[in-house]
Amino acid sequence: MKLPLFPIPSGTTPKKAPFIERIRPFIEKFKGKTPKIKTYFGAPQRALGELLAEIGIGACVSPTTKKHFDSYLFYFLDNGAFKYWLKGEPFKERPFFNLIEKSLKSGKRPDFLVLPDLIGRGKESLEFSASYAEKLKGIEIPFALALQDGMEEGEVRDFVSCYCVEVLFVGGTTRWKWETAPKWVRLAEELGIKCHIGRVPSVKRIYQARKLGVHSIDSTAPLWEERKFIGYIEAVMRVSSCQQTLPFVEA
Q1: Is residue 28 part of a domain?
Q2: Is 10 inside a domain boundary?
Q3: What angle, rounded to 10 degrees, do the helices at 153-163 and 122-135 form?
Q4: CATH number at residue 187
């Protein structure tokens, strides 16, 4: 039996160490190394945000999560549309504008903000995003356009030109997203902007994104359980062709 590192009063049971303390030794081995693909985790709590910053990982901040801007190495602003969609609720504008205001007041500017979109609704989503691009004209934060099922390259190209979009954010339904991702990466390269894939849930998808030449990814999946967290960090920091060596290889 492995003895604890500190004395425990008789008659008591050792408590499981907090998550942060359990993963700290694991994180330590990656200090000084650079992630193989730029990664944002879904709004981690302050302590975790600070720990992830030590290995070059940032945060995705949405209207519905707590904000700890000073603890993030870098971050982007999500619009919250996906969470509203999951709940069957319409997009809420005021929380989104409040998020932007808090970000600007923090003194730490985000990498980009995702223009509000409509999940899986193609042209309708494009028009919806355009309405917010108009409302936000003049703001000193780069725009990302969320790509949705049914959008065509020509109309996306025109949108990027019209609203000075700096990031193509590949969203949409899961199957559509991964089937069309290659053409969006190529379009971003052609236009001289970046391509980001949202909700990349597993080691398998990290490899796929890396192979496509995607600039960055985000996910909340690693925060659901410790095993996923460890496998995800391993893949982000050590992307290679040897998937078998990593725990958590799923679709």
Answers
A1: no
A2: no
A3: 0
A4: 3.20.20.105
Supply 15's token pair: 């408590």
Cβ-in-10-Å burial (0-12, 13-18, 19+) of 148 comes to buried
Distance CA 25, CA 232 (A): 16
Return the residue matching tokens 């496509």. Answer: 212
Q: For 6-30, give one letter per residue: b (16+ CB within 10 A) or e.
A: eeeeeeeeeeeeeeeeebeeebeeb
Cα 175 from Cα 119, distance rounded (Å): 13
Q: How many domains does the chain have?
A: 1
Q: Which residue has the tokens 């190495």?
A: 73
107: alpha, beta or left? (left if phi > 0; alpha if psi -120 to 50): left
What span, in angstroms and rounded, lies between the C-alpha atoms of 73 and 53? Answer: 5
Q: Give the chain's radius of gyration (CA, Å).
A: 20
pLDDT in tens, the chain (251 residues): 443 333 334 444 445 678 889 999 999 999 999 999 999 999 788 999 999 999 999 999 999 888 999 999 999 999 999 999 999 999 999 999 999 999 999 999 999 999 999 999 999 999 999 999 999 999 999 999 999 999 999 999 999 999 999 999 999 999 999 999 999 999 999 999 999 999 999 999 999 999 999 999 999 988 888 989 999 999 999 855 444 343 333 44
Structure tokens at 190: 């052609």
Domain extent at residue 61: 33-241
Residue with tokens 């193609």: 122
Tell me, yes or no, whether 56 lies in a domain. yes
Nearest 10 degrees: CA dihedral of 72, 106, 170, 159?
Answer: -150
What are 82's two structure tokens? Answer: 């996906």
Kindly state the helix (H) or strand (E) to which residue 77 belongs, with its residue range: strand 75-77
